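Lecture 7 notes: from sequence to structure.

We start with a single chain of 96 residues. Read the sequence below before looking at the structure.
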Amino acid sequence: MSTTTTGFDAETWRAHRNASPQDNPRREMLRAVQEDVLRPGRGRDEILAILGEPERRSSQADQYDMGPHRYGIDNETLVIEYDGEGRLTGARVTRG
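Now the structure, written as tokens:
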């Protein structure tokens, strides 16, 4: 997974929903999001209150666009997964 030296700023994160990949600072906040926001068992409503609406959503996952990978041309997506009760079960970064 990508690392970061920048802390998480919820306002900046939410302001970059649907941003063009090159203008998206979310990737630089990834480590802070993983450590401070994505705590096991946290509720979906609480995570959405912090991160805002995702670019894509299904019944058991939210997807946030992160912009291009530092060393490539593929864009990264943070996928946050929930159980049937809406509790965080896992998160991963995909490229493509």
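DSSP finds three helices and four strands in the chain. Keep this in mind for problem set 3.
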